[in-house]
Design a protein that fits this description.
Helices cover 15% and strands 43% of the residues. The chain is mainly beta. It has 3 domains: 69 residues, no CATH class; 153 residues, no CATH class; 145 residues, Kelch-type beta propeller (Neuraminidase, 6 Propeller).
């Protein structure tokens, strides 16, 4: 009798679960997707645990495209941090300014020294780098910010470290430099990954002027005018790459004035932003070499700025660390809006306004941390 009653109880629970699942299954996929598109992201995560059907729909590209159109997305920052004495970097998600404790993802897929990164609407590609034996790798991984999984991508045709990469037209990733073999650098300096076909292709590049020496390490690369790439080599020399003509143009030996101290370049329309020294944020025109300080951010000069990244649609995110030795280390995030002003008929200035600022991470167990990569996503 006891076993029979236990069986009846189990049967009733199972039937109740099946009825609930049956009611949900009556909804057509298009109706269900329309409902999910209007929910907060955390509710989507909760629904994904209900059934495989919910999980598959919650991760589908059509749903997230609809969420973008309906503006149902929320801003998140993803950062790769190496926290000492931990041996490997980890990926953390920070929800804007006042998040819960940051959550760590996928430490096994951490980038290695010399890796470069490319952000897409859905996630982060980690490309190349140095292995433990000191040799460059052709390995590539993709971290999906929607389902929080790491996927192995087809490896590059050439092993690379110290390369730079740019996304063109949301479809192709161009990887520049990083080839350590002098015999193949000129012929294999650029290769491109097609996100749709999931294939790599080495490009035969025409250089202007002919026979210019291709730089081994590209410090910065930024997409401009949709199909061209502006590059700064490790020594500061400037190059342009045309994707339509597959041509590299040297800027006549023109160099950046201080490449060692100009980091985290970003291009907004025709204005460059970068991280300078002494807590300064700098800007310059696409067509001029002289850097100027962004006005209105003087209070940040007291801080140790360690990273700048874009924060759509027209803002930047500034990360800085705080905490003397033997005290709790904190990572701070500041959201800054930018606006240009003509001070006189001949003088243009870029002004920044701090919209919000707060600590987003703190840990008394770490001795130091290094922010390898940061970027924003709307999810």
């Amino acid at each position: 009798m006891k076993g029979r009653l236990r069986g009846c109880s189990s049967g009733r629970k199972k039937k109740k679960k099946e009825v609930c699942g049956g009611l949900l299954s009556l909804l057509p996929d298009d109706v269900f997707v329309d409902i999910l598109a209007k929910l907060p992201r955390l509710d989507l995560v909760a629904l994904a645990t209900v059934s495989r059907r919910h999980r598959n729909i919650a991760a589908c590209h059509e749903l997230w495209s609809m969420r973008y159109r309906l503006k149902s997305v929320e801003p998140y920052m993803y950062v790769y941090m190496h926290m000492y004495p931990d041996p490997m970097p980890t990926l953390r998600r920070l929800k804007r300014i006042h998040p819960p404790p940051p959550r760590s993802f996928c430490p096994a897929a951490a980038p290695v020294e010399g890796s470069c990164f490319v952000r897409t609407d859905r996630g982060i590609y980690t490309i190349g780098g140095l292995l433990m034996d000191g040799k460059p790798t052709s390995g590539v991984t993709f971290f999906d910010c929607i389902d929080h999984k790491v996927y192995r991508v087809a490896p590059m045709k050439m092993a690379r470290s110290g390369a730079s990469a740019s996304l063109i037209e949301e479809r192709k990733i161009y990887v520049f430099g990083g080839c350590w073999d002098d015999d193949v650098t000129a012929n294999c300096w650029v290769e491109v990954y097609d996100i749709h076909t999931k294939t790599w292709e080495l490009l035969s590049v025409v250089s202007m002027p002919p026979k210019i020496k291709m730089p081994l390490k590209i410090k910065e690369s930024m997409t401009m005018h949709e199909k061209n790439v502006y590059m700064v080599a490790e020594d500061g020399e400037i190059f342009f790459f045309s994707t339509s003509e597959c041509r590299v143009l040297a800027a006549g030996g023109v160099k950046d004035s201080d490449p060692e101290n100009h980091n985290d370049w970003r291009l907004y329309d025709e204005t460059f932003i970068c991280r300078g020294v002494g807590g300064r944020v700098l800007w310059r025109s696409l067509y001029k070499l002289g850097w100027n300080e962004v006005k209105g951010l003087e209070e940040l000069q007291k801080q140790h700025i360690i990273k700048i990244c874009a924060f759509p649609p027209d803002r930047i995110a500034i990360f800085w660390s705080q905490g003397p030795a033997y005290q709790t280390l904190e990572l701070w995030f500041t959201e800054v809006s930018l606006k240009g002003h003509w001070e006189t008929e001949d003088e243009f200035q870029l002004w920044g306004n701090i919209e919000s600022s707060a600590a987003v991470f703190s840990d008394s167990s770490i001795t130091a941390f290094h922010l390898l990569y940061a970027d924003s996503f709307f999810l």
